[in-house]
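To whoever is on call:

I kicked off a structure prediction for a single chain this morning and the downstream step that reads the tokens threw a length-mismatch warning. I double-checked the sequence; it's 578 residues and nothing unusual in it as far as I can see. Pasting both halves so you can look.
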Amino acid sequence: MLRSEIIKRLYKDYTKKFLNKIIISVLFSLLVAISTSAIAWLLDPAIKKLFIEKDKTLIFIIPLLIIIAFTTKGFSLYLAKSTMISVGEEIKKKLQINMVKSLIKTDTQIIDKKHSGKFISNLTYDVNQITSLLSNAILTLFKDTLTLLGLLGVMFVQNWKLALASIIMIPLAGISSKILGKRVRKVTTEAQERSGYLTTYLVELFKNHKLIKIFQKENYENERAEYHLNELKNKNKKIAIVFVRMSPVMETLTGVMIAILIFYSAVLMSKNELDINNFFSFLAAMMLAYQPVRALSTLNMVYNQGLSAASRILPIIDQKNTIQDLSTSKPLKISKGEIKFEKLNFSYDVNEGKTLKSINLDFLGGKMTSLVGHSGSGKSTILNLIPRFYDAQSGNIIIDDQSIYETNLSSLRENISLVTQETTLFDDTIMNNIKYAKDNASDEEVYEAAKLSHCEEFINKLPNKYQTLIGENGVRLSGGEKQRISIARAMMKKSPIVLLDEATSSLDSETEFKIQNALKILTKNKTTIVIAHRLSTILNSNNIYVIDNGEVVDSGKHDLLLLKSDLYKNFYEKQIQK
């Protein structure tokens, strides 16, 4: 995306809406410029009338005017800044909302390719850089430009020859700013990358804290943390140093200009072309101009920081999904719930080998079908293709004579419940976790689902019962308890198709019995496709597919497969040994 395109986009989508507030801020900035210029100009009559001519009629008026000028400047500056702070926070919120909305809707494959920590860094670090550009930089541009113009006006009024000599500092400061701005953009990109790495590392650190303790890797992780923090520190230090590089440039330019000013003023005074009151007023205007010139000289660097961040954020917001409804998509209508895979080919990456190779599957409506095979054979992929978390490269998936690629996503996913091997819960109450499948569910519906999934017995033992906060991903619950809550959540949806990836973790016999009983209730008279790890599940299946290396190598019922499939027989014998 070109820089001009980024600027137009930021204006159209994020700044234009707040144009009225920006105009108000500009008007207050104008008052800041007028009052600042007035302070410098008032030194002329103050020196001439009060000290040279000793005019007592103005002894109260001029000091009062100076107080009014400073007060006006202070309040105007406060109102200008507070208005732009409000604009900045609104823009930040809108950017973050747009980014989160995009990430929520984006294809699973896109999320898989990037660590969540890097998205978090985009959401915080980069958004702050853009906010700074669209609020602080805009305020600086108007406030300091207007102030500088006002002070230049005072300088020209006092002595145009001195003013012409002084404005040489402005283009020199601009050249320095342009050179340093390019450097800032490069270093900002590097700092964002380091911020992403650090956030990624912290997410991993907190997620795996038990693993760190059991393997006694505290010192190792301390070193890694220090490395990431040190790298980020170095990048942030570089940015800060680039910004302060303007200080010696500006100080040197100011020193040179004051020296030239004093020399040239002395020459003009000797020729009676400049009075002492004009000189002090001019000097005050020039000294007050130092701050806006310095602020404007760093503006290019803030501009480059913001554009660098926007070049990373806007592509995320604009991300086009490959998995989406067609203009001709129709709602899925379930009758029997029969699912068919027809010559389906799938690969997670076109440059890698196929995960599924021209497979044909037939799942009977209202019946349970098990998928059996070694890890990595393609079983989970089959489950993920049905709700269209991913789309196949070729072939078709048909539900009740309707291609899922020709039905709208909402109606497709509305008819599917998913219970995964890795139970995912939110850091919320038990009530809200179960209700997640149906927002408008009554408490009685939740109690019924909890009872059927055998959650009720352990929930009632908790101090706050259904209002108990379960922690990040249900950390305060046991593995069996988490599985039962996920089953209760699936029950709330009451969908005709159930996709189940059985947990491989071993459970005690009582918990195992309760979970199996809950699953029987969940899957009763529903089209159920289960990645089976337990013998009891396999024996209860109406049909079994044996998957190996992305292909269907056998199918049938348990007894038949024992006779004709060596792969299935081997799997069965291992289950018996367990």
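Update from on-call: the warning came from a stale cache, not from the record. Cleared it. Sanity check on the structure: The chain has a mean pLDDT of 84.
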